[in-house]
Amino acid sequence: MIGPEADIGEAPSAWPGAAASWLASKCDFMPGVVHEARVFVGTADQVAAVREFVRTLLGGHPALDDAVLVASELAANAIAHTASGHAGGAFGVHLARLSAEHVAVLVTDQGGPTEPSVRAADLESESGRGLDVVTALSSTFSVPGEGEQRSVLAVIPPIDQIAAEEAP
């Protein structure tokens, strides 16, 4: 679904990509899994629209706050580091309530010159920590796709489950 903020006309024929199609197909075969996708214009103001989309679809879920943060980071990265942030660019966000405890956030962009990667940011850097946050909050993190289209998938459990898994 293309949201009201995304006045980009028709999405490219391959949109939202193999990874998003794969996630949607898996959700279709899982009774009770609520999932929805939306395309956003690749401008910085759309990050707030992504947060609202996540809050609306996942409201009340125990992983909601972490899902909002992860989707926000991934949307900001799509805008800052890929062709999605260029004039006429767009990116897709696919959300799924996988269970009473887990949600999936998949952001598909229009590709860029480098692969997303976690990097070490020094203490005085103003950027470079987004994927650290995403991987810390995710039980699964994957980057399928390359070239003109790439997706980042994060499966997010509730925060108490992450804490229990990290406990000695």
Architecture overview:
- With 168 residues, the chain is α+β, with helices and mostly antiparallel strands.
- It is 35% helix and 21% strand.
- It is built from five helices and six strands, in the order H-E-H-H-E-E-H-E-E-E-H.
- It has helices spanning 18-28, 46-58, 64-81, 130-137, 159-166, and strands spanning 34-41, 90-97, 103-109, 140-142, 145-146, 149-156.
- Strands 1, 2, 3, 4, 5 and 6 form a six-stranded antiparallel sheet that branches.
- A hairpin with a 5-residue loop joins strand 2 and strand 3.
- Helix 2 runs antiparallel to helix 3 (64-81) and helix 3 (64-81) runs antiparallel to helix 4.
Strand percentage lies at: 15-25%
Which structural class is indicated by helix and strand composition? alpha+beta
The N- to C-terminal Cα distance equals 44 Å
Biggest sheet architecture: 6 strands, antiparallel
- Could you name the ranges where pLDDT drops below 50 across 5 or more consecutive residues? 1-16
| Count of alpha and pi helical runs | 5
Number of strands: 6
Shape verdict:
globular
Mean pLDDT: 75
Order of helices and strands: HEHHEEHEEEH
Helix content: 25-40%
List keywords for this structure.
alpha+beta; disordered N terminus; 168 residues; six-stranded antiparallel beta sheet; 5 helices
